[in-house]
User: What shape does this take?
Amino acid sequence: MALDYFILAFLSSLGVYQIASVHAKLDGLCFFRQPVVQYIFGILAIIGAFGWFFTSEERNIHTTIEGAQQLGLFLGSIVASWVFTNILASIMQAKVNSQGSTPREGKQYDMGIETLKKTTLFGGISSSLKKERKDKV
Amino acid sequence: MPPLAGWTLWITGFVGKAPALDSVMRLLCNDYFLPLTICLIMLILWLGQQDRIKRNHIQRAIMDASVAIGISTLVVALINSFWNPWPRPFLVDDPIIRESARYAAQTIFYFPTDPSFPSNGATIAFAAATGVWFGNRKAGAVVFVLATLWAVARFYAGIHFFVDVAGGAVVGILTALFISKVFMPQIEPLPTWTMKLCRLLYLA
Assistant: This one.
């Protein structure tokens, strides 16, 4: 049950990240270039995860997942999903950019997820590291 | 027996009469469905704002709501450790209420073993709704609706008396009000540092 719940939260938060990135224009989180495709992917991920979880087994049973454990599993899954989203988006966008499409806007030094409006997570980390090195010199 | 115990007999009387309603209630009172839905709403609010200032505002509200959920759970545990005023509806002495609630719980949910008052689910759901309300009125209203559905479903399933879910809602709302308006401003700059740390880790 704990693993099933982790998978449910992981997949549905993956969908949430895609939908949220359309709203907030966080291009660095996007798997797809077209917002409509991203939206559909997000909704399908959420509906698919909930559909699978609630139809695969009887879920109204007295299990051992207590509130605190449920919270821990949820937090673990959203962090894992966040890391997975960032890695996949970085790989996909690096691939697209290397194929000669318009590169993402150059270096910028925003903090936090604001960075993801212009670059991927790893692009942001690398540009802030470069800036730090430049500042030291 | 709590006040308004007779309402349990009335609401559990509907169980088994409309299979479609029972199926909806089975989903709504589930331990994972509405809690996860509320958490996902909080997650989309955390990330989904384009404007940086508005995003900061809502992220603070979501952080307050998360703290309120944690603290309200502790408040429920504290209440339960000192006061356990009545058993679950399916365990009361009155045979009519007991049998009706027993049938409802068996059909819709299962037989929980923790104390009846206050409803833990209602407490955390209303704490989350109140916290979200301070960041975004529309989303807060949606979460209030979900919290109410959760509370009604658990009352329908015969696992709580009306007073349990109403008491849980009051505890949740008051805890969230205290956290958002008194506690979090008092512990500044800790919340600000937490937000800065989240920003440093690309989480906010």
